[in-house]
Design goal:
The complex is a heterodimer. Chain A has a single domain, classed as Cytochrome p450 (Orthogonal Bundle), CATH 1.10.630.10. Helices cover 45% and strands 11% of the residues of chain A. Chain A has helices at residues 20-36, 54-62, 99-107, 112-116, 119-140, 146-150, 152-162, 169-181, 194-206, 217-223, 233-264, 266-274, 279-289, 320-323, 358-375, and strands spanning 39-42, 48-51, 68-69, 143-144, 225-226, 229-230, 294-299, 303-305, 308-310, 315-319, 378-381, 401-406. Chain A is globular and about 55 Å long. Chain B is built from two helices and four strands; from the N terminus they run E-H-E-E-H-E. The termini of chain B are close together. Chain A binds chain B through residues 104, 107-108, 110-113, 280, 284, 341-346, 348, 350-352, 354, 358-359, and chain B through 11-15, 17-19, 26-30, 50, 53-58.
Chain lengths: 408, 64
């Protein structure tokens, strides 16, 4: 952590999603807010709001009256200065009318059949990670399922799609830390910025252009058009940064939370391990109960929402994980029901900004859990009371020491 | 039993396609495509209900 955060006295009027107390007690805080003050406010980060009811979150995400903009999606002290409708990282930071064509460019590469083709690669990689984890476990009696397993999977897969060296994983994680996990103003040497890194990658591809349909996702973006024109260099770079950053911490968190849950709930672990038919339902229930992503919007024009005075440029957090635990929207919302049949969770967001990589993330989560549980058949946490969940808009366990009881 | 599917509401979550590929396909951009416009065979009624109950955008309904 870069600086000690001021203590939160009252979560209804002074909430702070970057405070360690929030990370440690998020479920309880959301449940309390939903009861007492369904749209909380805070002066921190220059003013922000946080609804916790599923209905309100869904309505804001749907944005029928255009009262909100996606110009900023990660809360920070400074308001992003790149104007709508394009924004810094299209299409996540784009509004209509630019959003739909910018998104359309990417829907194909992330559609289910394209993603399915990456499954064998992902599975093989997960096996190699388990091999290494078991070796570590044999040596020291435990291994870290967050750092030694979950964290590596999305890095490897997105690096493959973007044509980037997987060895640059630590560099990517630094970018992510700076952009989403701890978004404070800091001075960074130019050559360590994400912009610099991708300018080099893009220049390399421009010097050796590929015909349409060939090459990696960056080549693809250099070959396509929006409104009849090639993408602006800032658009290509912004989108590539988005694809890298959006898929790593999120998926890592999701895999980690699922392993954390299974380690703590032997009955669920046994059911998951022994009943292949329950697995697709279990994966969606992990996504519902432990959704990692809280997205942000900004208020586009002054208005009142349920008595709350929303001012232009106020931040607005959309905690989809809180909506997923709303008893008005889900039966037994606070319980993990491994074979939940009715599950309209919003883990991947709702509305036009539905996570572009959701099929990829779901594939990675499914494969990661398949391989982990099929190989490491019984496991527990080394220190269940001391698992630290991340602060900020992405929630997941950052260290997860696991001891192996049986494996194959 | 028939299914009403509203393409305008679909955001490509692909939950229906995963639960019931007999009933829904996906297009090249990941949006759902209803494969059975008419009567849903009795053996697929449970799966049709699952599609309804798991669509985050409320884009699928049962029309009796």
């Amino acid at each position: 952590m870069d600086a000690k955060k001021a203590p939160v006295e009252d979560w209804t009027t002074d909430f702070d999603h970057t405070h360690p107390d929030y990370a440690a007690n998020a479920h309880q805080i959301w449940d309390d807010l939903r009861e007492e003050c369904p749209i909380a406010h805070s002066d921190r980060f220059g003013g922000m709001w946080m609804p916790t009811r599923h209905e309100d979150i869904a309505a804001i995400a749907a944005n029928k009256d255009g009262l909100y903009t996606s110009r900023g999606v990660v809360v920070s002290e400074v308001r992003p200065d790149i104007p709508a409708p394009i924004g810094y990282a299209p299409p996540i930071t784009s509004d209509p009318p630019f959003h739909a064509p910018a998104r359309k460019l990417l829907l194909g590469p992330f559609a289910p059949r394209k993603v399915q083709a990456l499954e064998p690669f992902t599975r093989e990689y997960c096996h190699s990670l388990v091999d290494a984890a078991l070796e570590t476990s044999n040596e020291q009696g435990w291994f870290d399922a967050a750092i030694g397993y979950s964290q590596n999977i999305p890095v490897k897969v997105i690096a493959q799609m973007l044509g980037l060296p997987a060895e640059d994983g630590p560099v990517f994680r630094r970018f992510i830390h700076n952009i989403i996990e701890n978004p404070v103003q800091r001075e960074i040497p130019e050559e360590e910025t994400v912009e610099w890194y991708f300018d080099q990658q893009i220049a390399k591809r421009k010097a050796n252009p590929k015909p349409p349909g060939e090459g990696d996702l960056i080549d693809h973006l250099l070959n396509v058009e929006v409104f009849g024109e090639a993408l602006a260099p800032e658009h290509v770079r912004g989108t590539v940064v988005l694809l890298l950053v959006a898929g790593i911490d999120t998926t890592w968190s999701s895999i980690g939370s699922a392993i954390w849950h299974l380690a703590l709930h032997p009955n669920d672990l046994a059911r998951f391990r022994d009943d292949p038919e329950v697995r697709p339902f279990a994966v969606e229930e992990f996504l519902r109960a432990y959704a990692p992503v809280t997205m942000a919007r900004m208020v586009a024009e002054d208005h009142e929402l349920q008595g709350c005075p929303m001012k232009k440029d106020d931040w607005l957090l959309l905690p989809f994980p809180a909506g997923n635990r709303d008893p008005e929207a889900f039966e037994d919302a606070d319980k993990f029901v491994i074979d939940r049949q009715k599950n309209r969770h919003g883990a991947f967001g709702l509305g036009i900004h539905r996570c572009l990589g959701s099929n990829l993330a779901r594939m990675e989560l499914s494969v990661a859990l398949d391989v982990f549980v099929d190989r490491i058949r019984d496991f527990s946490l080394v220190d269940p009371a001391n698992v630290r969940f991340s602060t900020g808009q992405i929630r997941g366990p950052r260290e997860l020491p696991v001891s192996v009881k049986t494996n194959v | 039993m028939k299914i009403n599917y509203n393409r305008e509401l679909c955001q490509g979550h692909n939950r229906c396609y995963m639960l019931a590929p007999e009933i829904f396909d996906v297009d090249d951009e990941g949006y759902a495509v209803l494969k059975i416009e008419g009567e849903i065979p009795a053996e697929l009624h449970d799966k049709a209900q699952l599609c309804v109950d798991n669509c985050p955008e409320y884009a699928i309904e049962i029309a009796e």
